[in-house]
Structure formats: structure tokens, C-alpha cells
Design brief:
Chains A, B: It holds the Pfam family HisG. The structure is a homodimer of 298-residue chains. Chain A is an alpha/beta fold. Chain A folds into 3 domains: 132 residues, 3-Layer(aba) Sandwich (D-Maltodextrin-Binding Protein, domain 2); 85 residues, 3-Layer(aba) Sandwich (D-Maltodextrin-Binding Protein, domain 2), CATH 3.40.190; 67 residues, Alpha-Beta Plaits. In chain A, 31% of the residues lie in helices and 31% in strands. In chain A, the strands form 4 sheets. In chain A, strands 4-1-5-12-6 form a 5-stranded mixed beta sheet, with helices on both faces. A 5-stranded mixed beta sheet of chain A has the order 9-8-10-7-11. A 4-stranded antiparallel beta sheet of chain A has the order 14-15-13-16. In chain A, strand 2 and strand 3 form a beta hairpin. At the A-B interface, strand 4 and helix 6 of A face strand 4 and helix 6 of B.
């Protein structure tokens, strides 16, 4: 069976971003079922899947290496995919960022609180410091503004007003901007974390299937992370009111408990919705309410 | 007195490198007598000298801003001064790096342990990944080797052999290179930390004097950090032998202790030399030996 032998030798070369996305990337890979660990200082994490070779690389570089086929797949965010103009297959959203799951960071245009600049239109002829020069230039062009975009190596929040009139900086919680007395003028780009694949790897059926399997396992866990299962009991009298509440979230499954007037209902909701949902169920007459975390959605 | 009024309004805009040099930069500024502290996330550290405005900026950017006069002065390392081809005044060496004082890190050319590449000459036509592209190109040119230097955003130790044939990476202790099974072929650049000043600021006498004062205070402390004072007692019989030992380190000061046959000798040595010096003094007949740290040299 030559096909199997060949497959045994095949490997996915997979890029994991070093730095801000590293923690959640490793966490969700682990929770997706891959036993992966990083020896301090070593850039090739160990993983208990002989078909995967992992590399820790700077987030800026993964899209380029994936587009060139030097990596078969990897985890990357849309900012650097766009900035590098990398031609990659976006296999699925991963929905996690450095600190949060479910909402991404964004690149914003900001000026000092005391700046006379009130909107992007006031930047005509001014200097904007940005780590993502191509994305910033495209944004300014869309707005019909001609400004000089200076490449920033980082620490951009220090730059206005002394080194630039405005900055384009990434923010997840807004804390750094507030701490440095910066005022947000506009959102330049909302960032999504993606599992991306190389167009070359995508043409290789074995690799494509392996990447899709990885994506399914990781994405299922990320979605599971955000979901809760809700179970509750009710009498037949209250059932319509309770179903009316549940309907806003999901199609509930209803089972009559044998030999009683009780019904068992179960459905799913976003974990974040539970704090509104649970009191509403209670008000509608539900009892024995149980919220349990979903682990993975398939 | 218009001159004084004017001076009161003058300020030095001073760049402190964020990242690997940040810790020692703040430490030596503090020990030089400046009460400086960083509010978390805030890029403008507070300093108890109203004539200094500090900014935390990426190490890569300080030479450029100093050469343009946007910063009057700052702490920078020679790698990024050279890489940015920044025209700056090198006021003094600072002799500290990320982890060590007295010896700097270096950029080295390295390949995987298993690579057939044995010397820089074998890199003809190959790909070298490096964060300091200009410095690396100049090095290869000196060696008469034509290779493609690809810009690396960092994490270069992951790159050979899959993404490049060789890497130019910075190392202070060699740990990362060893952990990633890399073999050093050659030193590309030895790095020194410097206090640098803008040619523009240097023409302003008030600024120049202020920068020179800062340099004297910081450099004095860095040198003091590495020095020890040695004091010892001896009889007149042993004095010649002891002076012969001391002479290797410094010109000793000798005082006769009134009404006795004892002499008190004192001199300075490098703190690192003390472990050889002290036993030698003992062997030569000294007693009451005291080594005390120097704090600052003026």
C-alpha cells in the first residue's frame, strides 16, 4: 500500500506566533487534543503528533512563510496577512486574541487628548506613525487623506505628538491608550485570528485533510469555550413561557419526564448570555436550572 | 537675566530603550542619582529633573530620532546605530547590556549543528536571515561572499535550516543558540551600549553641558559598579612585596600609621580581579584586608 507509506512520511509544517498570540494558541492547541509544550528558548515546540512539525515564529512572518509554502499552515491574524499582502487560504476563524476570546483587538488611529486634530480629515500633510504601513496607507487612501506614514517598530503610544502627529496602534482593552492620554479618532482595522494554509499545501490532498482536521479540532474547542449548555425543569403550565425565553437563544429540546407533569428542556447559549438568560428562565417558572460549559463543538 | 530664564525652559528630550536594555538603563540612571520610575504601560517615565523629558522607545528607533534631533540624546547600542546609518555623537560607552556589565552581546553568524556549511565562504548564493540587514550585507561584502540577506522580524534561531541557510542572531550568553542546536561560524558585530547625542543638540551649549553631565553621572556609576576599593595593613618588612602585587592593578596610596611599624595601603581594582588579588595580598603578608565596592567614579 504505497499510499499509506507515503502518508506516514508526510508532515505539516505549522507556524505558531511567538509573542502576544502565543499563550492562547498553545492553550487551544492543547485543549484541542494536541499535547504540545515549549522548552524555554527553543523555537521548535514538541507535539505528540508525528505528522506535525511546529515552529514558533514572529506573528509578522507567518503569513509570508505560509504564502510561500515554507509553512504548510499556521495561526495568524488578519493585520499581518493584509500588511504582508500574503496570498493564503483562510481555513477558519479562531476567535481568540491575546487576552480575550470572542472579540478581537483593533488597530485604531489615535492622537493626544490635547491635539487639535479632531478627525482623520485633519491629518492632511501630517505624519502618522504605524507598524502596519501598507494597511495604514490603504486606510488613508479610502478616506481621501494624504499623510506621511512612518514605519514604527513598536511602542507607538509614545510617539504623538513629539515624533508624529498621530499614531495607528493596536488595542485590545484600550488600557495602553488611556494610560498614555491618547484619544481614538477611528478604527483602522478590526483584527481576526485565523488558521491559514498555504495554497501549495491546499493542493496536496493529504495535507489539506490534515489541516482541515486540525482546524476542526481547534475551532470546535474555541467555539465550545464560548458556549454553555442550559438544562431546566418546568411544569407543563410554564412550558410555553420558558420555550419563549429559550427561543431567543436556540432551538430547545423538550422531553417529558415519564409519569410526571414535568418537562426537561435543554438548549445552548453563548456563555456570555447566561447572566441574562438564567434570571429570565427563573422568572418564567423554570426550576432545577443547570448551566454547564460546552467543551467542544463538532 | 534672560539667559537663566531661557535655560529654565530648556529641556533635554532623552530616549530610553524599551525591551532588553530597559532594565539596566533605568537601574543605572537611578543609581546615577536620577529618581526615575515607569508607570506600567506609560511610555513617558517620570524623572525628578525638570530639565529632562524621558521617552521609552524601541531600541531600533532611538538612533534615528537622535540623528534627526527629535531626541536630544539617548541610550542606544552600536548595532542599531550602524544599521540605521544614524549620524550621532557618541558621548560615552555605557558598558552594560541586558544581563551583563562590562562585556557586550554580539551578533553572530550561525548554522544548524548538522549543516554542511563550515565557514562564511560556504554561504555563496545562500540565504541568511538577519534582523540587521545592512550590517549583515556589509559583513558579507567584507568577506567577499554574495548571499541573499532576508530581513527577519526576530525569533531568528527558528529559521535555519527550514527558512534560511544561516542566521545572524544576537547572543549575550549563548544559551538560545545552544538550545536551538546552532553552531557559531563567526562574529559579525560586537555590540557596545552608548550614550549618544544629536549633532543639533551638541551645538546648543546648554544642552551639550546637560548631556555631558548626565553622561558623567551615569558612566561614573557604571564604572564604579565594576570597581572595588582595596585596603590592607602591612609591616614595613612586607611593604615592598605588597606594593609589587598592588602595582599590577593600580598606583597604591601608602600611609604610615603613626607611632607603629605598620603601613596602611589602599588602591583600586576591577571587582572581577579581586578573587585573584586578595589571595596574592595575603600570600605577600598583608593583613586586615578590606574590599569595598566603589559606587561611582568621577
Amino acid at each position: 500500500m504505497p499510499k499509506i507509506k507515503e502518508n506516514l512520511r508526510q508532515k505539516i509544517v505549522f507556524g505558531i506566533p511567538k509573542g502576544s498570540l502565543q499563550g492562547n494558541s498553545l492553550l487551544f492547541l492543547r485543549q484541542a487534543g494536541f499535547n504540545i509544550y515549549v522548552v524555554p528558548r527553543v523555537c521548535q515546540p514538541k507535539i505528540d503528533d508525528s505528522q506535525i512539525n511546529c515552529f514558533l515564529l514572529r506573528a509578522q512572518e507567518i503569513p509570508k512563510y505560509v504564502s510561500l509554502g515554507k509553512l504548510d499552515a499556521g495561526i495568524a491574524a488578519t493585520d499581518w496577512i493584509l500588511e504582508q499582502k500574503a496570498k493564503v487560504i483562510e481555513v477558519c476563524d479562531l476567535d481568540f486574541a491575546k487576552k480575550t476570546v470572542g472579540r478581537g483587538p483593533k488597530w485604531v488611529l489615535a492622537v493626544p487628548q490635547t491635539s487639535p486634530i479632531k478627525s482623520v480629515k485633519d491629518l492632511q500633510g501630517k505624519v502618522v506613525a504605524s507598524e502596519i504601513v501598507n494597511v495604514t496607507n490603504a486606510y488613508l487612501q479610502r478616506k481621501g487623506v494624504k499623510a506621511k506614514v512612518e514605519f514604527s517598530w513598536g511602542a507607538s503610544e509614545a510617539k504623538a505628538p513629539l515624533f508624529a502627529d498621530a499614531v495607528v496602534d493596536i488595542t485590545e482593552t484600550g488600557e495602553s491608550l488611556r494610560a498614555n492620554n491618547l484619544r481614538i479618532l477611528d478604527t483602522v482595522l478590526e483584527v481576526k485570528t485565523k488558521l491559514i494554509a498555504s495554497p501549495l499545501a491546499w493542493q496536496n490532498l493529504w495535507k489539506r485533510e490534515k489541516i482541515e482536521t486540525m482546524a476542526m479540532l481547534i475551532y470546535g474547542r474555541v467555539r465550545g469555550h464560548q458556549m454553555s449548555n442550559i438544562m431546566a425543569h418546568t411544569t407543563s403550565a410554564n412550558l410555553p413561557k420558558i420555550l419563549a425565553v429559550a427561543k431567543k437563544y436556540d432551538q430547545a429540546s423538550v422531553k417529558k419526564i415519564a409519569g410526571t407533569d414535568y418537562y426537561d428542556i435543554s438548549f445552548r447559549c453563548q456563555a456570555l448570555q447566561a447572566r441574562d438568560l438564567l434570571p429570565a428562565l427563573k422568572m418564567a417558572g423554570a426550576h432545577g436550572i443547570v448551566q454547564s460549559p460546552a467543551f467542544r463543538l463538532g
